[in-house]
Amino acid sequence: MLTEYYTEATTYLTDTFGPNFIFLTILITSAVSIGYFILISYIITNMDKRYFIRRKNKGKNADVIPKRTSGKNSLIFIIEMVKILIGIGLLVCGIIMLVLPGQGLITMLIGLSLIPFPRKNKLEDNLLSRQSVRSSLNWIRAKANKEPFIFD
Fold it and tell me: Where are the transmembrane segments (predicted)?
């Protein structure tokens, strides 16, 4: 029964889109997945090993969005907006990857770290309390011969 379903689905897709389109889709999806993994690995390996404890030392004001009063407000504003948009994009991709193949929780964690909002640290701590997230982050760092993150 399952074999018949896959045969019918394959026939339908091949007749509708053609074999070249399906091959191109598989090729692009694979390339994007590999590129994404390389990018996330690069970001994780370049983070400071004390990143997750540094913000705890800031005290109660760690969740407050800093106000900048320098003369370069427009440039800072543009950089902050780009950072927030990238963070939102990573957060959405992470949510999608919870049901699709990929590193959903790690992607969500990186996306959340780029977005300033109240109670951000509490949400990040909730994700970091999962042993699977901690071990995945440190596994990526170990493959790059970097010291593991310090969480506590």
Answer: 20-45, 75-100
